[in-house]
Design brief:
CATH architecture: Alpha-Beta Complex
Domain CoA carboxyltransferase N-terminal: 1-148
Radius of gyration: 16 Å
Distance between the termini: 31 Å
GO molecular function, one term: transferase activity
Strand content: 15-25%
Keywords: Fatty acid biosynthesis, Fatty acid metabolism, Lipid biosynthesis, Lipid metabolism, Transferase
Order of helices and strands: HEHEHEEHHEH
Organism: Planctomyces bekefii
Structural class: alpha/beta
CATH class: Alpha Beta
Number of domains: 1
Protein name: CoA carboxyltransferase N-terminal domain-containing protein
Largest sheet: 5 strands, parallel
Length: 148
């Protein structure tokens, strides 16, 4: 996520706040912040998360959709802040990849580690939905969870 993406997401969250609209953000990022942008890129994690905090105070409904892969700073910030978190089947979700975690912790990890199924079992994800069913499921969630 670079500065442009961070700015666009922040503006989308602010607009949803102004208009009292539900918000759906679909995340799919193989990495985190764009390191060549330096601190400007890293600041986007906090900037988007702060906008989401204001949105939550305004009682907005935020649905976060995790696609394959959702990693790095995206997973560590706004993608994990949804009121409802939906993931596609077999999506890789996490901050660092499984090989890095395994090497760092020096333990064997479960085969399904950092998959959406693992995340569902451990309470990080609320629902797993196939991409072909995503539109109707999001509509159902918005109808059910709308806070108007």
């Amino acid at each position: 996520m670079g500065s442009v993406v961070g700015e666009k997401l922040t503006r989308a969250v602010e607009r949803a706040t102004e208009l009292s609209l539900p918000l759906v953000i679909v995340s799919g990022s193989g990495g985190g912040a764009r390191m060549h942008e330096g601190i400007i890129s890293l600041m986007q994690m906090g900037k988007v998360s702060a906008a989401l905090a204001r949105y939550r105070r305004a009682r907005g409904l935020f649905i976060s959709v995790l696609t394959n892969p959702t990693m790095g700073g995206v997973a560590a910030s706004f993608a994990s802040l949804g009121d409802i978190i939906v993931a596609e089947p077999k999506a890789l979700v996490g901050f660092a990849g499984p090989r890095v975690v395994e090497a760092t912790c020096k333990i064997a990890l479960p085969d399904d580690f950092q998959t959406s199924e693992f995340m569902l079992k451990h309470g990080f994800v609320d629902r797993i939905v196939a991409r072909s069913e995503l539109r109707s499921e999001l509509a159902r969630l918005i109808d059910y969870g709308g806070r108007q």
